[in-house]
Structure formats: structure tokens, C-alpha cells
Amino acid sequence: MVLDLFAGPGGWSHPLKVLGVREVGLEWDEWACKTRAAAGLVTVRTDVAMYPAWPFLGKTQGLIASPPCQAWSMAGKRLGLVDQPLVHQAVADLAEGHDTRERLLAACRDPRSLLAAEPMRYLHALNTVGEPEWVAMEEVPDVLPLWRQYAVVLRSWGFSAWSGILNAADFGVPQTRRRAILLASRTRTAEPPAPTHAKSVEPPTLFGPGRVQWVSMAEALGWGATDRPVPTVCAGGGPGGGPEPFPSGSRKALADARDRGTWKSHPRGTGQKDSAHVPAVPPSEARGAWSLRSNNQANATVRSLDEPAGTLFFGHRANECVWVADPVNGQQHEAGPAPEPIRITAAEAGLLQTFPADYPWQGNKGQRFSQIGNAVPPRLAAHLLAPHLGKTLGPDDFTLAA
């Protein structure tokens, strides 16, 4: 089987299921575990730092780990950078079979920092029986020095190892999400998968076809198809509570703008409460009319529908990822004020992470957003895992709605 530490709602697990691989995930968050159960994924609800490694000895083909990123993320206080020497020390000690976690944890500014050392505890135990065959790990870019330390240890155990930064957009994810990746294998040369997409279309060469263009938000969300009706501008609150998708007054502002023939229809669902299936909007009404803003800070990333999204992150700013009607291409509305920003829905965020449209997210709005923002994009995970599983994926082999 494949062991998935910090398994979350299924960013790694969903593509493993699609690829026909048996996997078990360890996860602590209650709602992520409920999402996994609804998706048919095998899960042990536990604290990864407390769970023993011995049940997996002699049974583990691959080990996956995406430790919680909150201590390191740009969206947080980044105390993981302050704690980084302690985490490096923990990894070095665990690689030698010495458990110094309790002492080092007491010195950490953020107790979550040391979770990035937990995979080494499992790897050391599994290595005593010649396992796993391969390793795949993912985190925010600032964790790359730690992955390089892991790579050195794994090479000393007979693995080939590679670590570096990959952009999820280069693998068909409609999001320019950069992540530090560690890949290691006992049986093959570890190297990053070949990118399938590029910012601009590449012409074919003597060596084969060029890369296709990055997937845009409009393409991923189906906004731009012409075979489905234009939705009305309405929506309700999420099934688990939380604020409704439209801020106060914006519903009327959008309706008035539509009636004036200025802003047309907003790219949103048909009145179902946070529906997982997002109807399409014809190109003349969607493209160039809306952009996605990552948060309310002055330097927030703003991307038009014809581009991939910036990195989606949620949590304490759960609903600050919004559609704005003042597009980055400079197009202006014809009359009256532009509509207020409209919060992105969990369904839209899930699609931009390349989860299926009908993925069974559990919990209220905030809990769903938290799961989505912290997950590995399944399409990126599929490309990282495929070589270890003897699979070859092209640009469209693992579709956005698999």
C-alpha cells in the first residue's frame, strides 16, 4: 500500500484512487476525515506525531507527506522560518533513530513547525525493512532547504533523490501554485515529471509536440462554453452556515448592472446553495469581465479569467478570495459603480485546485475552504506519482473533473 501522512481531504489520495492504487491516509482534522470518508478513501483519524510506524512495516510501497504549511506559509506568521534550525535538528536526530522531539518542540515558536520532521520518523522505521520503494513530499517553497536535507539522508540509504520548486500550472492546474517537492526512489532515477503546459503555447519540435497553454480559470470552471444556459445572478449561504456568497447589496448591484447591459451576468451558480456544479457563462459575458483577487491586501494577486488563478489560500482569511468586476485588462463598465466583490465559493475553489466538481466536501464554508486551500492539487499529485506507479500522463490524461 501507499502511506499518506497528513492526508487532508484527498489531494494525493484521489489521484491514487483514480490510478487504481491502494492507499491509507493518516489525518487529524475531523472534517477532512469526513470528506475522505464520503469520497471512499481509507483513513485513520490520528495525530501523525503520535501514531506508531510499526503497523506499516513490511506493507509500504510508497510514502507521501504534505505536512501542515501554516507555520511556513506566506499567509501566516511564518514562525516556521524562526524554528527552522530546530526542525533540521529533529530530522537529523530522527534519521539516526534518536527521538528528541519533545525537547525540540518545547523550544519551537510554533508547535506546528516540527511536524515537518515527522516523515523522517516513519522513513527511519520503514528503512529497517527496506521500505518504502519511493517517497513523494510537498510543501510551500520555504521548506525546500528541509527537503534537501531529507534528500541527503535518503541518498545515504540507497535512494535516488531530487528536490526543487515546481509550478502547478505547468501540469495543467489552473493556478500558479509554486511548491517545494521531494521525490526519491530505490528503483529508478528520481527526477521531476516533464511539464505538460506552458504560459504560452509551444510549437512542435523534432522531439515531439510542444507544451499546451496553461489552463485558465474560465476553462477550468466551464465559463466560456456555449452549450449551457446563462445562469441568473443569485446564490444562497452554504449548507453548513457561514456568510452567503454575495456581500450586502452586491446582488442588487449586479442585477442592476445586468439590466443596464453593462456587466451582464456574474459567473456564478443558479441559486443552489454552494452547488458543486458550476454552470457556464458564454465568452462574451464572462471573459474580460471578472478577475480573481487573492485577498484584500494592497499587493494581492489579481488574475483575469483568461489566466490561471494565483495561489489559493484560506484559513483566517477564508472568504477574502473574491471575484472583482474591475478587470486587470482595463475594461470599464459603461455606467454606474462597479459591483462589489463577490466571494469565491468552495465549489469554485475546489475546481481551481482540480478536484472533481462533485467532490463530497464536508463541513461548513470555513471548514471546506480550509481543506481546499491546504490540499495538494490532485492533478499535480497525479503527475508526481505516475512515474513511481509505471504510468505516463499526457496533458489531458488526468482531467480536471476526473
UniProtKB/TrEMBL annotation:
Biased composition range(s): Basic and acidic residues: 253-262
Family membership noted in the UniProt record: Belongs to the class I-like SAM-binding methyltransferase superfamily. C5-methyltransferase family.
Catalytic residue positions: C69
GO MF annotation: an example: DNA binding
Region (Disordered): 232-289
Alphabetical GO biological process terms: DNA restriction-modification system; methylation; negative regulation of gene expression via chromosomal CpG island methylation
Protein's name in the database: DNA (cytosine-5-)-methyltransferase
Xref: Pfam families: DNA_methylase
Keywords: Methyltransferase, Restriction system, S-adenosyl-L-methionine, Transferase
E.C. number(s) listed in UniProt: 2.1.1.37
Enzymatic class: transferase
